[in-house]
């Protein structure tokens, strides 16, 4: 099913140059787009690709208007990448099939849960007693929302997400452990997206809190009583231990690990694979990764690494002598 | 729903000082507790917080009896943290709603599985042929227990847990792989808790074994034919490769990675994020983490790290000269 | 239920020496096998175990024929490990119970999905509109296959697998994020096995591609638009970020992390726990792991590591002086 360029511009705005009747049959990257496809140019570095592109139309920033016009049809928008994102949304809506029931018959919703009338609960989801699902929120499939947990409006929870399992809390007792029942819940704001099989544990006494606009990728673990601030983005396979307090507008790379009971300021970026063992109180980019190498080189360096502090002492001794 | 202090002490014991009719409306940390809330002091370091606390009652050790009495109501118990854990359990029982059916109608239980009469199987769980679920054990929701796997008594398996998927075993053959069918099962002891979306694979020939009292957090992978000893605690996102033999009373930090076919002695602690590539035969704390740094400093150090063994050689050469 | 040695050899071939009527009651490792069990010897290093083994029969390579015959019954096969794998398969088939319905009644299959007649869809699986499940493929239980995703023939997807959740794509916009709808799908070849709770995201515009014969362990994350080449094997807890292009016949160790938009050549092996931050264009073994140590030693070395580049400068200065 195609969309005419005129329909796209009518829906999303922007300054349009070209034939509004041209049928767009798909979206594609600049370098592979065909004459029936729409592409975008966000980074000026790729301007040579613009000139060579066969795309039927290209979304560009005002600064790229001239070269784009020289090539053919274009939509000029202040932020071409965000415009492109809105086109993908338009595209998806245009191709959606008629909606089935808001709550799939296989979902198990406790009679004391509250689900907004326009929320959508997919197959095999479970929403427990006292949980609340906000307006326009989508639980795709096989999502579990435990007792008393609250999900805001316009959230998307992908397949396999678990919200509100017990936090990991035990008191040592006679060589074993007493379970500390987790009496808090999870509160999730609006416009939050949570990736497949990600888990957010309920709080021990107070709640675990995910603020508005947070985006969590797949297979992430968020421990009890964490707080993740507004619009922070966390990539897949990351672990965040209990009571970590993470600021707003952070970007946490994939497979990072953040220890519990520490604070990360707003606008901190953590490189993928880094281990955060202390609070980070200043914005910036932080990294801690062992660089990969061919195995033979790694072995030699890793062996030396285990004597590193003795090397320092030997340098000091040499410095004294000379 | 409140509990009176007298009810708590009647149920759990301890030496009580104060008004047994005082209604407790919640549990809270010492520093934020209100006059209607119960708190605890476990670590003597926090004694100043005790003196300032507004809590209606505080659980303390015998050594803190005097300052606690000076402040107001208290429960004196040998181990305040374990006592507090038991209060959370009492609290949860007191606030539970009447139980529904022991086996949720949406669960799929094979006719040849054996489920103890007082076990509880939640929504969308699957228990396959020959599996056995012990007395008082709870499968929260969407738990999968494969053929022939055995779960002991009083275990808790959180949402999304997978017990007994095939271990990862293939024999190279003609450029591809022959599957090695996994003919063992998983045997889990009593009083084991397993976090959301954690996976424990079935053994290849013999069984994978999780002993009594083990606590596993969320999103942990346990490979085929591992053994995890009694009362060992493993934090989230940890991976344990096949045939690892882990002792009793260990504590494995989050996002640790333990290679297969190695042995970890009893009472070994592994720091979060550490990679365990060799057996550890002595109790103690072990660590292997690249320290995080601002990215610019990290880049300089990481670049030098790749020449580390040449630095050692240069130091040696200098030592010869001087 | 036992199998006679003659039945095994009749089904799988190989040169047999011994009593074909001997009933084999199980498979076991060489060192623990009983007279009613079948074992194998693949690595010549374990020849002393062969001589001591009590196994009823041993599968050996032609080079081990003599010592095996000196001990008792044996099957001589070109590749004993692959032969053993085929015995496990025979064993499983012989012990399978009569198959139930091909599609479990609790599974939710969209009317516009296409499931091969001999595919098997287990309890609580969800297969969405336009998805296709190939001949002989098994979805064990609680597997989710999203809209338009294609799974080839003879695949095995274990419990909790999520195929085709949205890739993680957002365009920054006004301090928050616009969702980039993920319009691609996931295409999985033939003979692919995917472990429990592993996630493979759908592509943004083009598809995410998993080629024939790939084996993925549990709790792996594969980002949008990745390609994983034929017969590559990936161990558990590994994360592969978006648009990574991984060759054929690679072996990726557990808990590795592979950044996005990079290329890994055919026949590259990555050690478990390594972080791959750059393309690897030559076959070989690559490693990047911080070596574990007792915590006190680690602390001293890690502290020195943060000054590593200054140590290099000090060595340089010393070299100039001497």
From TrEMBL, chains A, B, C:
Reaction(s) catalysed (UniProt annotation): a UDP-3-O-[(3R)-3-hydroxyacyl]-alpha-D-glucosamine + a (3R)-hydroxyacyl-[ACP] = a UDP-2-N,3-O-bis[(3R)-3-hydroxyacyl]-alpha-D-glucosamine + holo-[ACP] + H(+)
UniProt cross-references to HAMAP family, sorted A to Z: LpxD
GO MF, one example: N-acyltransferase activity
Protein name: UDP-3-O-acylglucosamine N-acyltransferase
E.C. designation(s): 2.3.1.191
Pathway: Bacterial outer membrane biogenesis; LPS lipid A biosynthesis
Residues annotated as catalytic: 224
Gene name in the database record: lpxD
Pfam families: Hexapep, LpxD
Taxonomic lineage from the root: Bacteria, Pseudomonadati, Pseudomonadota, Betaproteobacteria, Burkholderiales
The protein's role, per its UniProt record: Catalyzes the N-acylation of UDP-3-O-acylglucosamine using 3-hydroxyacyl-ACP as the acyl donor. Is involved in the biosynthesis of lipid A, a phosphorylated glycolipid that anchors the lipopolysaccharide to the outer membrane of the cell.
A GO biological-process term: lipid A biosynthetic process
Domain annotation UDP-3-O-[3-hydroxymyristoyl] glucosamine N-acyltransferase non-repeat region: ranges: 22-90
Keyword Protease part of the UniProt annotation: no
Keywords assigned: Acyltransferase, Lipid A biosynthesis, Lipid biosynthesis, Lipid metabolism, Repeat, Transferase
């Amino acid at each position: 099913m195609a969309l005419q360029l005129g329909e796209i511009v009518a829906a999303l705005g922007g300054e349009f140059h070209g034939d509004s009747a041209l049928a767009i049959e798909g979206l594609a990257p600049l370098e592979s787009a065909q004459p029936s496809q729409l592409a975008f140019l966000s980074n000026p570095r790729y301007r040579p690709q613009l000139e060579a592109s066969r795309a039927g139309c290209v979304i560009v920033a005002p600064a790229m208007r001239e070269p784009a016009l020289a090539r053919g049809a274009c939509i000029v928008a202040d932020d071409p990448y965000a415009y492109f994102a809105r086109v993908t949304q338009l595209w998806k809506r245009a191709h959606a099939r008629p909606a089935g029931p808001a709550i799939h018959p296989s979902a198990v919703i406790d009679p004391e849960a509250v689900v907004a009338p326009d929320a959508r609960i997919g197959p095999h989801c479970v929403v427990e007693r006292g949980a609340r699902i906000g307006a326009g929120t989508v639980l795709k499939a096989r999502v579990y929302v435990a007792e008393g947990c609250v999900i805001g409006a316009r959230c998307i929870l992908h397949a396999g997400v678990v919200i509100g399992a017990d936090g990991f809390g035990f008191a040592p007792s006679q060589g074993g452990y007493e379970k500390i029942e987790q009496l808090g819940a999870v509160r999730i704001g609006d416009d939050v997206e949570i990736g497949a099989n990600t888990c957010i544990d309920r709080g021990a006494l107070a709640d675990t809190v995910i603020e508005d606009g947070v985006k969590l990728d797949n297979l992430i673990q968020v421990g009890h009583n964490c707080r993740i601030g507004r619009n922070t983005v966390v990539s897949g396979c990351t672990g965040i231990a209990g009571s970590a307090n993470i600021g707003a507008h952070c970007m946490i790379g994939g497979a990072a690990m953040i220890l519990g009971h520490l604070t990360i300021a707003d606008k901190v970026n953590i490189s993928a694979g880094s281990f955060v063992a202390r609070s980070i109180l200043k914005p910036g980019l932080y990294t801690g990764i062992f660089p990969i190498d061919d195995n033979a080189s790694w072995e030699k360096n890793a062996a030396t690494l285990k004597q590193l502090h003795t090397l320092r002492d030997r340098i000091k001794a040499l410095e004294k002598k000379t």
